[in-house]
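[step 3/7] fold_predict: job queued, chain A
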Amino acid sequence: MTLATNINLMAAYSHSTPVGGLEAELLDVGPGSPQDFEGKDVRGKIVMGEGNPGQLFRRAVQEHGALGVLGYRLSSYSNPDENRDIAAMSSIPYDVEAESWGLAISLNARDALRAALAAGPVRVRVEIESRIYPSQELTLVAEVRGEKSPDERFVFSAHLQESGANDNATGVAALAEIARALGQGVGSGTFSPDRTISMIWGDEITSTRRFLDDDPSRAQGVRWGLSLDMVGEDTEKTGGTFLIEKMPDPSAVWTRGEDRHTEWGGRPMTVDQITPHYLNDFVLNRCMDQAAETGWVVRTNPFEGGSDHVPFLRAGIPGVLFWHFTDQFYHTDGDRLEMVSAETLENVSVCSAVSAMVLTSADAEMAAFIATELETAAIGRIQREAEIGRASLSQGGDSEEERLILQTWTQWYLDSVDTIRDLEAGGPSEATETIMAAVRKAVAEAGRKALESLGG
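[step 4/7] structure written:
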């Protein structure tokens, strides 16, 4: 393994070896638990183990005096039996006293070293040249200023600190292309939004959070947030699918039917944590518009967190995530340019740009259109949940629980209808208030009928 073949070979915060490298005896500690170190003298040796490289470093180097560590770790969704030559992104504690290092190794490398150890003692030569230095955290912000309400914003965010092509050079590239297209529209006079479109490139979560925290008056005007993270995948190679991670709705409390969490995983949520808003269904419909033209596969997942939509939500701002999962090369050095699809990048970029352009220029006619879409989504969801509920009750399910689920979905959509008030710059028109009232009535009626269908 070399840096040329495995870009994740060196763990973050690794120090350089002496000029010319170093050579030492190799010792295998298996999973690397405290018990695996009992009776072993690792001082002055190179330790190989499995699991979290940072934990292995703490035990081998910081506690027992090893020279450095070779760590193997791949998640099950990385298909390690097939992807035997890739290594996972890793880091070790920053330690100015030990000035040691860690290397992430592949399954093939681990097995080859173990086979050699089975035949007798093994010595390993390691050469590392690294630089650890103070640096300035930089965030780039570009904007298309709104004409009517420039202090109100749609904000994109794409993080750029990770090393993968899909994670997240694709997000950075998609947002750069959106910026280019919007700039061209403004320059030619064909596009002029009522509200501002802001675009952030920076460190994941941190830059978005600081954009909001550093200027409370600016944050107050943010109406929508969209995170672009792993958005250009060739899914025939990486696996998984394009996903819209929804802001918390009842599917994050009761995940059933067609809703599925990804292998990245989500924590259980409660009803008081859900966030009613039209944004979930609006961006899904824009992506489905694109899919109808291209055959693109679009799915959603309940809220899980972990990307730049989180700071928006924590600030009380509607925010969603566009991404892909499961990606078998996620956070490994298999995440290379050949795993990127230009077609996928175009699909995501188009529906992202259209979402921002529509929302920042919405008038009464567009508010009515979005309200009608929301009514369709609400009734469809309530009917599906009722069907699931009836099936559950036929198998002895909890009637009170099923009724609570329907009531929660109905109320979530009723509250989402109310958020349509923010669509028109300057406040809702009388026409918008009228259509909102009609949609609320239709949703409430759908909820009532669904509850009746459960009996009892």
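[step 5/7] annotate
The chain has three domains: 22-126, 140-360, 364-453.
The radius of gyration is 26 Å.
exit 0
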